[in-house]
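Q: Please design a sequence for this.
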C-alpha cells in the first residue's frame, strides 16, 4: 500500500463516519413520535356512534348467487389447490377432495381424517349458506376446524366460488333462489 491509497482509504473512512454521524443526529432530531395507542386519531368532533357503526350488511347468499359467475369462481380457488383436489376422483390431500361437495354432508369423504369439530357437524350439509359462512372465515364459522385458511373476504367472490363448487358434480343441484 502506498501513501496515495492510504489517503484515499482515509478519505472514504471519514466520509463514512460523517454520514453515520449525520444519520444518528437526524434520528435524534426527527425521532418519530409514537402515539400511546397504535392506530390513528379520529377527528374529535366525529360522533362516536358513527365511528362504531357496523359495516354495510352483506347481501344474502341467494341474492349474490344470482349475480355469481362459476368461471370467476374457478379462477378464485387457486389458493385452495394447495390442499384440495377439485376434479372427479381426485385424491384427498391436506384437505378432502371437493368434487361434489355441494349439498354433501359435512365431513363425509371416506378415509379423510376430519377434525372433531367437523365430525360434530356431520348432520348438516354444505348448502350455499354453509359454504358461504365457512369460506368467509373457517375458524370463526367452525371453531376447531383443521382448515388452516384465512377465508375469502369479498362477499361476491365467495358467491362465485360457491357457484363453482356447485358445478363440480355430475348433476349440479339447484342453487337457492333470491
Ligand atoms: C391449508 C390447507 C387448506 C386450504 C388452503 C383450504 N382448505 Fe379447505 N379444508 C382443509 C382441511 C384440512 C379441511 C378439513 C377441515 C376439518 O376437518 O375441520 C378442509 C375442509 C374443507 C371443506 C369441507 C369439506 C368436507 O368434506 O366436509 C370445504 C368445502 C373446503 N375445505 C373448501 C375450501 C376452499 C373452497 C378453499 C379455498 C378458498 C379451501 N378449502 C382452502 C384444508 C385447506
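A: Design:
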Amino acid at each position: 500500500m502506498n501513501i496515495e491509497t492510504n489517503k484515499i482509504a482515509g478519505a472514504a473512512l471519514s466520509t463514512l463516519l460523517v454520514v453515520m454521524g449525520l444519520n444518528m443526529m437526524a434520528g435524534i432530531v426527527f425521532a418519530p413520535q409514537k402515539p400511546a395507542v397504535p392506530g390513528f386519531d379520529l377527528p374529535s368532533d366525529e360522533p362516536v356512534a358513527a365511528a362504531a357503526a357496523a359495516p354495510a350488511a352483506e347481501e344474502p347468499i341467494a341474492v349474490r348467487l344470482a349475480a355469481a359467475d362459476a368461471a370467476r369462481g374457478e379462477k378464485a380457488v387457486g389458493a385452495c389447490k394447495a390442499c384440495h383436489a377439485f376434479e372427479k376422483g381426485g385424491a384427498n390431500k391436506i384437505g378432502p377432495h371437493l368434487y361434489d361437495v355441494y349439498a354433501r354432508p359435512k365431513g363425509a369423504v371416506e378415509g379423510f381424517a376430519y377434525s372433531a369439530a367437523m365430525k360434530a357437524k356431520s348432520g348438516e350439509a354444505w348448502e350455499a349458506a354453509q359454504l358461504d359462512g365457512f369460506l368467509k372465515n373457517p375458524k370463526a364459522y367452525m371453531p376447531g376446524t383443521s382448515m388452516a385458511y384465512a377465508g375469502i373476504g369479498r362477499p361476491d367472490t365467495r358467491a362465485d366460488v360457491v357457484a363453482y363448487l356447485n358445478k363440480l358434480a355430475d348433476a349440479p343441484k339447484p342453487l337457492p333462489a333470491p
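Q: Thanks. Anything notable?
A: The chain has a mean pLDDT of 88. DSSP finds eight helices and no strands in the chain.
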